[in-house]
Amino acid sequence: MLIEKFLKQAKEEIIMDTVLSDEFMDKVQDNFAPIESLMAYYRCAIMEVETKFNVLNEQFSLQYDRNPIESIKARVKSFDSILKKVKRKQIPFSLESIEENINDIAGVRVICSFQEDIYMLADCLLQQDDVRLIERKDYIKNPKPGGYRSLHLIIEVPIFLEKEKRPMKVEVQLRTIAMDFWASLEHKLRYKKNIPESEAEYLAKELVECAGISASLDQRMEAIRDRMEAAQEKIS
Ligand code: GTP
Ligand code: MG
Questions:
Q1: Helix (H) or strand (E) segment spanning residue 169
Q2: Domains of the chain by residue range
Q3: Are 95 and 31 in contact (CB under 8 A)?
Q4: Which among 79, 80, 74, 130 has a CA at the least distance from the CA of 107?
Q5: How far is residue 143's CA from residue 151's CA, in Å, rounded to a whole number?
Q6: Model confidence over 214-234: pLDDT tens digits?
Q7: What is the ipTM score, two decimals?
Q8: Is 100 marked active-site?
Q9: Of the ligands numbered here, which is closest to the C-alpha atom of 143?
Q10: Who's near 55: CB < 8 A, 6+ residues apart?
Q11: What is the residue with the minimal CA distance to atom 27 of ligand 1?
Q12: What is the arithmetic mean of pLDDT over 68-77?
């Protein structure tokens, strides 16, 4: 993104209610080139993590004739989202502070076939000796009050540059197709505005119930798979 475009956007959207000080704008100018390289490092970290999952998927499919991963989505947080988070979390605006305090600049979402695969893949990833676990949040065992389910890992992986090895943080979200289906639709609906409070309350309850239904669907599909495998073993 061009610095001019970014500055315009920052002025218009990000800190709408406060006038951006000259000091802040100078900081943005000073930090712009280094921010671009930091973003490139995050893209590299994403490549490393995606490759790790692709390798696991490949190996699993050779060994068990089945792919635990349905799809992988990855993204680097946009610059304006980063700035919004800087403001929301009230952290200092410097590269060091952004890297230190914002854990989801690099995000990898792994969509799995079954819940069991989520834990198997997470374990395999965390056993690798270049992966360091920083934080683990299990929203499958402990769903969020709104119904959200997924396993979140904040990890650190090294990227190898010309003259240095640089550890980078990546947020990994592992979920089933059903969990992803729910989260994607809920995310879209969350931005609907001007809904009366009583109606919003009802809709929130509905969303929690739908999350429960989709979780039980996951369990039933997994039970079907288990029975199929058991039946197959009997024959062979
Ligand atoms: P952030 O500072 O917003 O990242 O919160 P956090 O550090 O407490 O992270 P948390 O584990 O709550 O969630 C991080 C990410 O998970 C979000 O950016 C979303 O991608 C996803 N997420 C968490 N809760 C929900 C939810 O209720 N609905 C949906 N659709 N996604 C969610
Ligand atoms: Mg986040």
A1: strand 165-176
A2: 2-235
A3: yes
A4: 74
A5: 10
A6: 999 999 999 999 999 899 888
A7: 0.95
A8: no
A9: 1
A10: none
A11: 148
A12: 97
